[in-house]
Design a protein that fits this description.
It is built from 16 helices and 28 strands. The protein is an alpha+beta fold. The longest helix has 28 residues. The relative contact order is 0.11.
Length: 657
């Protein structure tokens, strides 16, 4: 084979869907390897190494081992921390709105006061309960209201463009409750191909793209599908073309679409897993909808006077006249985005309407919401930070490093994440700056088009960055992890500081280890001595008393003579499965939890025997390899199965209920 390849010029074939026609067409038209694209990839990879391999060890020495920093990861962390700081600094402000309820025939509706005594109301014009009571008292003299203006308009809403990597991730989070990582893995499976009846075919085009372009063939096929399955009004007169707002979008790629619109979700559903089917259906519907006519609405606005022409309420409503693309797909909403308004009854100018109810509503301004995976991806894209294919990895890294946690699907920075961000923003300000990171992406894109040399780009970056790395090596860990407080230690009189420990931030004496005073951030004093004694038991190793202690993974039983004796025992006795360990046959398999909270089953004689399995053990021997234990594995797709834990065996069978 080496002889056959000798003196052969390497060429590259390009295709964005794994279908027979696409692959054959690509092979017929190979192209030369594009060195600008190679250089851009090398530059991007080298920059990531330069930042990660030099900045991460600095974090290990100054904060704690196992941390990491990255060219794109660190600005993303900064976004999350700064949003949390905004929320903490936010002070709610009270304001009131005034409303009336009315009806015509059996149709009820509401209106909001927008003009009082001829003056337009702003958000904080009515700022107290007493103010709104005074206004309501004045308006309540009226027994009915009068319509003084009716405004009707025909509006239309256009469909969303086809999916890019970013918008696919956002919609999968909003609509399918899938993480960005799971979305990309599932999309990869759809791209690589699924057996749909004797042949494996890629169901979607390449899923790492920031282009909104669709091929002429794909547009023609989608328009053909619309004409065959919908009325004539649903098909635009000409193809709908979309242009990416991103200046660095790779327009040679296509947007994410089905490889064939005639391969409907219903026709392939039985061949797909639940997640694959849901994601494919969403991609299919979005691609179909983008080539359909806009939805049309009749939007009505009523101005209603109460107790004089200078006091005006406004009611708004809309009615869907023609569904258009909404018949197929409607884009999801982020938090704090308002849904559409309801329908209003038919009313004309000078109509008298009853004043069913006049009331005020109290409101408080709300802080900006914490980032979800969807809104974080959207913000990263808006700032121009990272490439579409990196968003899922950024998010998984922030969670794995425990810089942030997910609380009800919202990112909350941990104490470690805050300390890392503070260190980077104070000492490496330029390298976590949003504009700097975005401009660096622009320069890398210039390399990919041959307008910038990659080696000088790396040299320019490295000179300043390396100088800063060397300079910051002289910082002490105390400078990085501690914040001095204007408060003295009640025990020794030295200054107190906020410090970073294994379990997060706490207040401690700057005179440690001479003074061991500590307290929680909320003011509750801690103590290094255990206060709860285990009655009626002594340490099996040294005979000293046993006490309940608090460690990084919760409470446990330990010896009171620690550190001389290091005996420890779980506070919660592990549950015994009753299944004899198949490896040593001396102990039973008992239920334990890993440091991350995942349940597993291991031998009770550990560390003498290290046998362990993840799934619940069953005291049945494998009919295939005769191993004395099977495990009960339960999945959404296959249900409960008895599985042999011996990897080489591979036996599995449906569990009998």
């Amino acid at each position: 084979s080496k002889k056959l390849l000798k003196n052969k010029r390497p060429q590259r074939v390009v295709f964005y869907e794994i279908t027979e026609s696409a692959v054959k067409s690509a092979i017929k038209e190979p192209r030369e390897i594009s060195m600008p694209l190679v250089n851009a990839q090398q530059a991007r990879r080298a920059l990531d190494y330069l930042v990660g391999f030099n900045l991460s060890p600095l974090l290990w020495r100054k904060i704690r081992p196992g941390l990491s920093a990255g060219r794109v990861q660190s600005p993303a962390l900064r976004l999350i921390v700064e949003r949390e700081q905004e929320i903490e600094m936010f002070r709610p402000q009270e304001y009131w709105t005034i409303h009336l309820d009315s009806h015509k025939d059996k149709q009820k509706f509401s209106a909001r006061l927008f003009q009082y005594r001829g003056e337009k109301l702003e958000q904080f014009t009515i700022e107290s309960e007493s103010s709104q009571k005074k206004i309501i008292q004045e308006l309540s003299i009226a027994k009915d209201a009068q319509v003084v203006k009716v405004d009707k308009k025909r509006k239309q809403r256009s469909p969303a463009p086809p999916f890019t990597t970013s918008t696919l991730q956002q919609e999968a989070v909003r609509k399918l409750n899938m993480t960005t990582g799971r979305t990309m893995r599932t999309a990869q499976q759809l791209y690589e191909g699924v057996d749909i009846g004797g042949t494996s075919v890629g169901l979607i085009t390449y899923m790492r793209t920031d282009s909104l372009t669709l091929s002429n063939e794909a547009i023609a096929e989608i328009r053909n599908y619309v004409s065959k399955n919908f009325e004539l009004d649903y098909l635009p007169k000409s193809a709908v073309l979309y242009k990416s707002k991103s200046k660095n979008a790779q327009e040679a790629h296509e947007a994410i679409r089905p490889t064939s619109i005639f391969r409907t979700p219903e026709s392939v559903r039985h061949r797909l897993s639940t997640e694959q089917a849901k994601l494919y259906e969403m991609i299919w519907k979005r691609a179909l909808a983008c080539q359909m006519n806009p939805a049309k609405f009749d939007v009505t606005s009523l101005d209603i006077s109460v107790a004089g022409p200078d006091n005006l309420f406004r009611a708004s409503g809309q009615t869907l006249v023609f569904p258009g693309f909404i018949a197929v797909y409607q884009e999801g909403l982020d938090e704090q985005e308002e849904p559409g308004e309801g329908r209003l009854p038919e009313l004309n100018v000078s109509d008298e309407i009853p004043l069913d109810k006049l009331y005020g509503e109290q409101h408080f301004t709300q802080p900006p919401p914490r980032y979800t995976e969807a809104s974080l991806v959207k913000t990263l894209e808006e700032h121009g930070i990272g490439r579409p294919s990196t968003y899922a990895n950024i998010i998984s890294t922030l969670l794995e490093r425990e810089y942030t946690v997910l609380d009800k699907k919202h990112f909350v920075p941990s104490d470690v994440g805050r300390v890392v961000n503070k260190f980077l923003t104070e000492h490496f300000t330029r390298y976590v700056d949003y504009d700097f990171t975005a401009k660096l992406e622009d320069e890398l894109d210039l390399v990919s088009t041959g307008k910038r040399e990659w080696v000088p780009l790396l040299e320019d970056f490295w000179k300043g960055f390396n100088r800063l790395i060397e300079d910051k090596k002289n910082l002490s860990r105390k400078e990085v992890t501690q914040e001095q407080l204007d408060e003295v230690c009640p025990k020794c009189g030295k200054q107190l500081a906020i410090r970073l420990g294994k379990r997060g931030k706490f207040v401690g004496c700057s005179g440690f280890p001479a003074c061991d005073y500590t307290r929680n951030l909320n003011g509750v004093q801690e103590t290094t001595e255990a206060t709860v004694t285990v009655e009626g038991r002594s340490c099996p190793k040294c005979g000293s008393g046993l006490v309940i202690k608090n460690g990084p993974y919760g409470k446990f039983i330990g010896c009171s003579s620690y550190p001389k004796c290091k005996f420890i025992e779980s506070l919660n006795k592990p549950r015994d499965s009753g299944v004899v360990c198949p490896q040593c046959k001396a102990g039973n398999l008992i239920e334990r939890r890993s440091r991350y909270g995942k349940v597993f089953y291991s031998c009770s004689t550990y560390p003498k025997c290290n046998y362990a399995v993840w799934n619940p053990p069953v005291a049945q021997s494998c009919p295939k390899c005769k191993w004395p234990v099977l495990t009960l594995k339960t999945t959404k797709r296959r249900g409960a199965e008895l599985v042999c834990p011996v990897k080489e065996c591979g036996y599995s069978a449906e569990a009998q209920s």
